[in-house]
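User: Hi! I have a protein structure encoded as tokens and I'd like to know what sequence might fold into it. I'm fairly new to this, so please keep things simple.
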């Protein structure tokens, strides 16, 4: 046994002989002494960790090995050949220190001893740092970039970055970890085993056929046959087949189509399930990296983000101008600004237009989807009638409504003579979207004009956009059409160097402003190559990557390649878009290009080094919806119920939320049947996992067919689950949202401004933006209420402005709410519904939650509390608790008024500060345990939240919601003397002015404002206020809504 090991059976002392450490240590404790094997007394170096197993320092500063267990050999490895355990980190990090006599002796300092002692300690510290770095506790699979999500240990060393693969393989070998190799893995099932066996046999058969062919014809076939590449067929007035892909992947695309960048995305993003494609495409949903906050930063702060938007469908329409114009007017493009002189630039192909397509059927107009329309510039001839010119245009629509839109365009085209023709260009034209401050920089670096278009005005103008941070700075509808060079010729790209001595100063900004101001002065281009079928086909014949690599080997490393005749020009069309109403919202780029040219541009775009650092990020559908949410825009189709695509999305999400709710443990999910909303109301309004828009337009419940309710009894978790399952099973198979339609913001505003007031179309929804005023964050399926109604006043207003809505929509018809009763009296039959009036000042309670608003003077004078009531914010005594329990027990009796009939106004519950004098104390069951105002009743329900979360841009909870158009108009008309078209910022200014007026009126007590002015001030403050309550929760939050449009 070596001198550095310890053994229980050994007679040798544990302390080994050491040299006396240098003197001069200034330790306060006395040095410890130990006897060595020769009997001499030496100074022992004591490590910092005074625990068992800590190594002891050697004269050179290194530590000896720890004690080996019995049975281990002294060579450091076990007898069976298995490598030993990794060293203990506590031993590795131990720092040896010396405890010697002090360097000060007889009042004098021994300088040499003092320096030697400090040198010894520094060497020990350096050695400990070296050992700690060499013996790290982290494994290779744990060392991943910070942008990646954490993951568990992987038994395949190829699943870690390449630079860490050797280390991972070494660590697995040391720990005897069973590794996995995909090539040598055994089939896990009989089917996989048979497939592997068939693949092996087919490979042997192909090899034999090849050898047999060489034997019969040793010289081989020396003939060279050059064939023209097959040109894809584009049939007119019918749907076209998807692109022909590699035979290896053809069976995987039977029921769906891969995007051009599918293989690139599958390695870096979470895709749709193979058996459940989204809109007949395999679409990336979200990146594998952490992406929520980086997405926000890429849009507003720095960097860029890109999407492969090739799934957006493109429809071609061509024919005479008169026929094309008739088709577009049939799709709802009836605005005068499109067909008069103001729309001349759009019709000549100088700008693009974005709007809504509509469908007319059975004297009813419905919205199809948002679209973008681009005209091809007309080729003018002398003595030619303008109406007979042959024109072409592109319509880009969402894939969820492609079939419906294509059939509608085809139907309208057949009504014209001569008939325009329609083309399905879904697999002919792809697209890439970019957002962010560095999006223009990346776009200009990758999409460089071809030599044939280098002198064109649009190409030169595109190259002059250096320094442009936001595409929203460009004029509305700006676009650039030119031919670009293959970006692989310049790969890899060098980062754009910005000289610190020459920043982007006032002169460069002035030049950029001149370019932007003179943007629309040049005439439109005579033609666009992207509209030419032959140009798109030639652009698809790109040279292979192998041929480009061979060309690069002949040049200098990193040098760009020269463009040759084998490099065809690639036609592109870059569209700059922006928010129509919000000037602070950033813009975006949309690049249209041939389908097979998307992958080369995408690969080079993702690897372009930005001047701000890093590369452009990529996103999926979740990031698209997040950006629309942060901009305050609805995302189609999820935030636009009422359209056919929006209704289908809502029904699909209902099923997903229901399955998710059923998978959750009973103790962790909401029990919607037993939800207590206060005032004896029990149960959620509709299903908690759905936006029950059918509840908004439901008529009065017949008296002979009462709604079944479980509010009169307590339901346990098992019964609640069975009840929900029965609801899902017994639901009608028809679409419950089929008769609900969507009304655009422009149509809603026009109907609202008409004098006399025009009633809103029944059973329609309008999209709004919800902003929480104080606390709270709305989530999907949250319920939205208006402020509690006042009864007769509102009823009169509703009948005056909207008489048709009283019998169609569920407006406020009474001051009471239909709620289930709490506990039936003994011997009496509990009715299915009982009428319980709401608190008299519930409206003022909600209005008092507005911050920095002096609305207390609108409250009724506080009444004196009865002696038997319990005051708020006072410590509860034993008598108070007994009184509180008694109030809870007698609450049902007070609610039923002792006769089982509807209680009178005096028997209704009131908050303690508003109880009428001489009345009974409010029952505790009518008040929320949080002390928050009670939520309004079901007759005040006006809509649901489709998307809600914390908005990183505004720093508060926000949401996108859909409200009943009739009830939204009723709310805007409810407050007289208030402008119904003001925005939230204008409303905040009004609030400040009214608060200042109130302040001035407070100082001058003699000039008291009249009652009408008080009502106007109160109404201006309450405009667009609402109460938002998440599904399954009993507390509502105050918010303000604002109209938004697509």
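Assistant: Happy to help. Inverse folding works backwards from shape to sequence: for each of the 1046 positions I chose a residue that suits the local structure. Here it is:
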């Amino acid at each position: 046994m070596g001198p550095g090991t310890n053994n229980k059976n050994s007679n040798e002392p544990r302390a080994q002989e050491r040299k006396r450490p240098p003197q001069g240590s200034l330790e306060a404790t006395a040095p410890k002494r130990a006897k060595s094997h020769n009997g001499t007394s030496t100074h022992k170096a004591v490590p910092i960790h005074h625990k068992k197993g800590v190594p002891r320092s050697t004269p050179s500063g290194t530590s000896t090995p720890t004690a080996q267990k019995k049975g281990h050999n002294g060579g450091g490895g076990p007898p069976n050949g298995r490598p030993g355990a990794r060293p203990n980190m506590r031993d590795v990090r131990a720092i040896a220190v010396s405890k010697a006599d002090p360097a000060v002796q007889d009042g004098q300092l021994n300088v040499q001893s003092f320096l030697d002692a400090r040198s010894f300690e520094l060497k020990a510290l350096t050695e400990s740092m070296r050992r700690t770095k060499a013996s790290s506790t982290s494994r290779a699979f744990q060392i991943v970039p910070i942008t990646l999500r954490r993951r568990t240990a992987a038994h395949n060393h190829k699943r870690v970055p390449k630079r860490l693969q050797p280390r991972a393989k070494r660590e697995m070998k040391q720990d005897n970890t069973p590794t996995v190799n995909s090539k040598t893995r055994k089939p896990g099932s009989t089917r996989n085993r048979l497939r592997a066996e068939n693949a092996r046999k087919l490979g042997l058969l192909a090899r034999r056929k090849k050898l047999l062919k060489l034997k019969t014809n040793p010289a081989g076939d020396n003939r060279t046959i050059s064939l023209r590449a097959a040109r894809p067929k584009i049939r007119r007035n019918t749907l076209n087949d998807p692109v022909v892909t590699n035979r290896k992947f053809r069976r995987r695309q039977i029921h769906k189509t891969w995007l051009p960048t599918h293989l690139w995305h599958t390695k870096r993003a979470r895709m749709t399930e193979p058996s459940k494609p989204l809109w007949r495409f395999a679409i990336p949903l979200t990146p594998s990296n952490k992406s929520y906050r980086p997405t926000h930063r890429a849009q507003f702060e720095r960097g860029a983000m890109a999407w492969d938007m090739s799934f957006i469908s493109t429809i071609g329409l061509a024919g005479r101008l008169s026929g094309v114009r008739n088709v577009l007017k049939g799709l709802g493009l009836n605005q005068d600004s499109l067909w008069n002189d103001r729309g001349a630039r759009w019709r000549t192909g100088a700008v693009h237009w974005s709007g809504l397509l509509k469908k007319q059927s059975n004297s009813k107009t419905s919205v199809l989807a948002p679209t973008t329309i681009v005209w091809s510039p007309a080729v003018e001839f002398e003595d030619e009638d303008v109406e007979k010119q042959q024109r072409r245009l592109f319509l880009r629509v969402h894939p969820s409504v492609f079939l419906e839109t294509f059939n509608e365009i085809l139907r309208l085209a057949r009504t014209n003579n001569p008939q325009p023709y329609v083309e399905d260009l879904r697999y002919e034209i792809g697209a890439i979207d970019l957002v962010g401050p560095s999006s223009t920089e990346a776009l200009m670096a990758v999409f460089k004009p071809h030599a044939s278009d280098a002198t064109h005005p649009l190409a030169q103008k595109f190259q002059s956009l250096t320094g442009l941070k936001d595409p929203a700075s460009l004029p509305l509808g700006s676009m650039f059409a030119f031919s670009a060079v293959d970006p692989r010729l310049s790969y890899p790209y060098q980062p754009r160097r910005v000289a610190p001595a020459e920043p982007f100063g006032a002169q460069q900004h002035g030049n950029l402003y001149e370019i932007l101001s003179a943007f629309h002065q040049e005439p439109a281009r005579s033609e666009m190559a992207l509209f030419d079928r032959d140009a798109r086909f030639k652009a698809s014949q790109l040279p292979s990557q192998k041929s480009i690599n061979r060309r690069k080997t002949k040049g200098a490393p990193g040098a760009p390649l020269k463009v040759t005749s084998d490099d065809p020009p690639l036609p592109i069309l870059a569209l700059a878009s922006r928010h129509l109403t919000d000037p602070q919202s950033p813009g975006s780029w949309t690049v249209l290009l041939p389908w097979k040219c998307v992958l080369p541009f995408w690969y080079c775009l993702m690897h372009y080094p930005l001047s701000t650092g890093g590369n452009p990020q990529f996103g999926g559908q979740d990031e698209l919806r997040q950006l629309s949410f942060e901009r305050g825009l609805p995302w189609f189709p999820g935030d636009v119920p009422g359209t056919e695509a929006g209704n289908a999305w809502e029904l699909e999400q209902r099923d997903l939320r229901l399955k998710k709710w059923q998978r959750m443990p009973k103790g962790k999910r909401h029990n919607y049947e037993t939800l207590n909303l206060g005032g004896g109301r029990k149960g959620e309004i509709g299903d908690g996992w759905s936006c029950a828009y059918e509840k908004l337009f439901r008529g009065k419940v017949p008296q002979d067919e009462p709604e079944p309710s479980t509010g009169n009894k307590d339901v346990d978790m098992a019964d609640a689950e069975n009840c929900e399952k029965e609801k899902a099973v017994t639901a009608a198979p028809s679409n419950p949202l089929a008769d609900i339609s969507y009304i655009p913001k422009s149509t809603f505003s026009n109907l609202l401004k008409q004098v006399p007031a025009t009633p809103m179309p029944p059973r329609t929804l309008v999209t709004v933006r919800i902003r929480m005023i104080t606390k709270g964050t709305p989530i999907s399926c949250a319920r939205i209420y208006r402020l509690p109604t006042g009864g007769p006043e509102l009823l009169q207003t509703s009948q005056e402005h909207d008489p048709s809505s009283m019998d169609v929509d569920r407006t406020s018809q009474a001051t009471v709410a239909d709620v289930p009763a709490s506990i039936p009296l003994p011997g009496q039959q509990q009715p299915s519904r009982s009428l319980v009036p709401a608190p008299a000042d519930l409206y003022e309670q909600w209005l008092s939650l507005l911050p920095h608003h002096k609305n207390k003077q609108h409250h009724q004078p506080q009444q004196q509390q009865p002696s038997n009531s319990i005051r708020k914010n006072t410590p509860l005594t034993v008598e108070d608790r007994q009184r509180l329990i008694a109030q809870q027990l007698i609450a049902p009796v007070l609610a039923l008024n002792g006769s089982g009939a509807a209680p009178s106004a005096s028997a209704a519950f009131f908050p303690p500060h508003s109880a009428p004098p001489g009345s009974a104390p409010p029952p505790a069951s009518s008040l929320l345990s949080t002390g928050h105002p009670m939520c309004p009743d079901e007759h005040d329900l006006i809509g649901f939240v489709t998307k809600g979360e914390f908005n990183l841009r505004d720093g508060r909870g926000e949401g996108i919601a859909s409200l009943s158009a009739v009830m939204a108009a009723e709310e805007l008309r409810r407050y007289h003397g208030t402008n119904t078209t003001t925005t939230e910022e204008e409303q905040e200014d009004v609030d400040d002015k009214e608060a200042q007026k109130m302040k001035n009126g407070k100082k001058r007590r003699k000039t008291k404002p009249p009652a009408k002015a008080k009502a106007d001030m109160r109404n201006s403050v309450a405009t667009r206020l609402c109460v938002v309550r998440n599904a399954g929760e009993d507390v509502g939050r105050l918010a303000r809504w604002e109209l938004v449009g697509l």
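A useful reference point when you look it over: Residues 313-427 form a domain with the Alpha-Beta Plaits fold (CATH 3.30.70.1400). Feel free to ask if any position seems puzzling.
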